[in-house]
Request: fold
Amino acid sequence: MIARLNWRMSVPAPSTVPGATMARLCAVTVLLIWISFILVARGSAHATLTPFDIAWLRFAFSGLVVLPIAWHFRRTLRPGLAAGVGGATAGRVALQRALALGLAGGLGYSLLAYSGFFLAPAAHAAVLLPGTLPLWSTIGALVLLGERLTLPRLAGLALILAGGAAVAGTSLLEALGGQGTWRGDLLFVAASMIWALYGVLCRRWRVGALQATAAVALVALVLAVPLYPLLLWAGQLPTRLTSAPLGEIAFQAIYQGGLAMLVAGAAFTRVVAHFGPVRTTMFTAIVPPLAALAAVPLLGEPLAPSALLGLACVTLGLLVGGGAVSWPRLASSAAR
Reply:
């Protein structure tokens, strides 16, 4: 948690769904999964598994699912990852891009986000994960894509910054009393930054959803899945995999590896390809308020005044920056 990019994926029978319609369907899919992701991940902090256990299950399940798919589409993966590059260097460039996308959209984002959910409430995650994503996406698009910053988008980003500051500032004040919520907030911000980098790189390199999702899953499968047991054997990481109920393990593997990583990852990349990284993240205006409000009855987490203020600022910033609310109209209404 955006110029237009053609959706490139070779399949036996092309889809009959128009590109814009498919992109909107993917956007709805992303929104639903992102809202549930915040609730499920925060709820997992009160269960058995550690954040590293959950991340390992995510990587193992998604990697094993993608492996045969990647083999079937192996002739399109390297050209898709090395778009715009030909000759003898195409293979090396494809590998470098796969590693970058896998480290950002796979290992980096997952480990940072899951760790944050064990330290900070869902409302903070709602504001600082999808809520600040347009800010980091805009910065990345300015630097790497040369996109221009319009006045509405600038106004929206200012509101997003205000919302993030409301939440983070309160966490820092709580830290003076010994609470560690600020550490979770910092992890959420870092996760949002690295996911924004993933989206911008997909756009810059013109990588399609199949290629990007395969790269993320396979890099995690090769690097993280075999390394984790070695770290456990060496006593470098805590684990509760052996004591967790089988149902919890199966649920986390299927939800985190299947829905949150593969389905949401492919859908997000598809939306970025059609709308661009910044505009895509502006679609997420519905995620922070709904996730935070749902956490009240489902997780028993009350909304603090600072969280409510942060949600209001971030949501308004997303709407203004995305063009859903006209900034001059909003200003004139406030003047009345």
